[in-house]
Amino acid sequence: MRILSLLLLLAPTTTLADVPVLPELFSVTGVTAKDVLNIRLEPNASAAIIGSVAPDTKDIEVVEFSEGSDWAWINGGESGGWVSRRFLQMQPSMWKTGALPASLSCVGTEPFWSITFAEGKATLDTPDSEPKSYQIEHINDRGFAEDRMRAVQAGALTAVIVPQQCSDGMSDRSYALQAIISLREGDRPMLAGCCTITPR
Q1: What pTM, to 2 d.p., does this model score?
Q2: Which N-terminal residues, if any, form the signal peptide (predicted)?
């Protein structure tokens, strides 16, 4: 009886290793050239269709899986919805230890602001002033491949990015990353918002 119980515990099941740590970018797969991948309001095949994705679409950011991981939440434009995960193939991971995804950007409101990370600089754009770039000095993480937490030190700017469901408060998009921006200059010392790895 003990052996049977042990075998049942060791039987193949869906494990955390089978489910990628999000966010990641995916491509559409298995959809014919004359068809589309439907985006649905809920994670089931009978839910209302609210949009579609072309069969050759790449760089789709997945920010959440449904319970059981059969459906994936994707963003598109100012909205998002659920697509069947079996029609998505994960692209090579953009996450490397000690670095930021090349397409990472963050946005926030009250006031509206955005920040991009490129060519060794963090560039902050706010309605109060012209975009300002800060040279990135350090990118810290916790040292393992599945980690999505980052702390970026760039002169007077510090950006802390954590894996957490986030809403921009303006659209139906959903994000898998939240950002806190701390500034040691200006009259707005702290900003909060959401981040995406969708290429610009």
Answers
A1: 0.87
A2: 1-17
